[in-house]
Amino acid sequence: MSLVLAFAATGAWAADLELQGSRLIVSGVLDGSAVKEFEARLAGGHVRTVVFENALGGSAEVAEVFARAIRNAGVNTEAKGQCQAACAFAFLAGKEHRFGHGFQVHALLIPVQGKPQPGELASRWRGDDANRTLAEFIEPAGTHAPMSEGAAPSALMPAVEGTPAATPSAARDRWQPNQGVLFTSTPTLFGRVSNSFYCDGTQGRDLSRCELLSDADPVKLGVLTP
User: Fold this and answer.
1) pTM, whole model, 2 decimals?
2) Closest Cα to residue 73, out of 27, 32, 38, 29?
3) What's the start-to-end Cα distance of the chain, in Å?
């Protein structure tokens, strides 16, 4: 199976929602165009699982809105195909969050500003730590305000003495869709194989240029629900 996967491209399509029974399929870019419909669907009480299928990025602010709606509704999430950047944070908000079945490669790309250390990797996407990771991208550097009600403040972006505070636009510039930790699930003759990589953003679509991370099973790290 080739390690070349499609990263988010300029001009990608806006978010699309499709209700299939108790499953709400979300595809495209989480750009805010479907926020009201998404919130209304989940508030209706009929959705049990939100399926992100080839959801290629979006803004950090919209990711927080999707994540809050998912947490409030207490629904599960599923990722099929590509789930990148904004999609990844919304995916992690599910009561249970898993990759889909079938014969396609699933890839979850979580943006981070630098390669996580082993100790940080082990707890970064559990509970409030997932919220703090998202806060790196929606709070100006040096601030410690909570991302949203009930979320822990970000302790990962300390202010540096003598440097000016970042503007909101500078905070948005830290959102690099092609840089982060990538979790993949690939079908084989012997079952699905999971791998974890750190991508520094220079690899383009060639994942063979990303660094393979050892001892980074996505289930053990809390990225996927057992």
Assistant:
1) 0.78
2) 38
3) 25
Q: Tokens standing for 6? A: 């499609």
Neighbouring C-alpha atoms within 13 Å toward the C-beta of 198: 14
All structural domains of the chain, each given as residue ranges with its CATH number in brackets, are 16-114+177-212 (3.90.226)
Write the pLDDT tens digit of every residue in 20-69. 999 999 999 998 889 999 999 999 999 999 999 999 878 888 888 999 99
Closest among 157, 159, 150, 162 to 174, alpha carbons compared: 157
Q: What digits encode the pLDDT tens for the residues 182-218?
A: 999 998 888 888 999 999 888 877 877 899 998 888 9
Contact in structure between 78 and 100 (CB atoms under 8 Å): yes
> Do residues 52 and 18 lie in contact, with contact meaning Cβ atoms separated by under 8 Å?
no
CA-to-CA distance for 166 and 43, rounded, in angstroms? 36
Provide CB contacts within 8 A for 219, sequence distance 6+: 194, 225, 226
Distances from the Cα of 67 to the Cαs of 3, 14, 77, 95, 189, in angstroms?
29, 18, 10, 11, 35
